[in-house]
Design a protein that fits this description.
By secondary structure, this protein is mainly β. The chain contains one helix and eleven strands, in the order βββββββββαββ.
């Protein structure tokens, strides 16, 4: 059974930090790219970051909205991907999801920021940032 389980969400004051974790099981972890998304009430799902270890290069990318504040990393031995979130703002309040996608060698970064390209999703974890 394929599973992606997010953890680490919670309530934090503006300026604070959280580290989310995405534990994967049931599929060949190193063959997939793992992306982080978020969805705030009334808004569409937004791609934040991804990491692609499938070619052995640990390629990472972060959306402009979080670049310099969020960092994606992975521990392949634990089949876990992390999202370190610093300098959090009230606008970061949302449900955060991780997802797994088959890599696309000829696609640009937009592929990995598109929710429809992802095969598997976690259940999400709530992040609330108070002002």
């Amino acid at each position: 059974e394929v599973r992606l389980v997010e953890s680490g969400g919670g309530l934090v004051q503006a300026g604070g930090s959280l580290r989310l974790a995405c534990a994967a099981s049931g599929f060949r972890f190193e063959s997939y790219a793992i992306g982080w998304f978020r969805q705030a009430p009334g808004k569409s799902r937004e791609g934040l970051s991804y990491i692609n270890n499938s070619d052995g290069t640990s390629d990472t990318s972060h959306a402009r909205s979080v670049r310099g504040r969020f960092t994606v990393s992975s521990d392949n031995a634990k089949n876990t991907v992390y999202l370190q979130m610093n300098s959090l703002k009230p606008d970061d309040t949302a449900v955060y999801y991780c997802a797994a996608a088959l890599p696309c060698a000829h696609c640009d970064a937009g592929y990995y920021y598109t929710p429809a390209m992802y095969n598997y999703w976690g259940q999400g974890t709530q992040v609330t940032v108070n002002s």
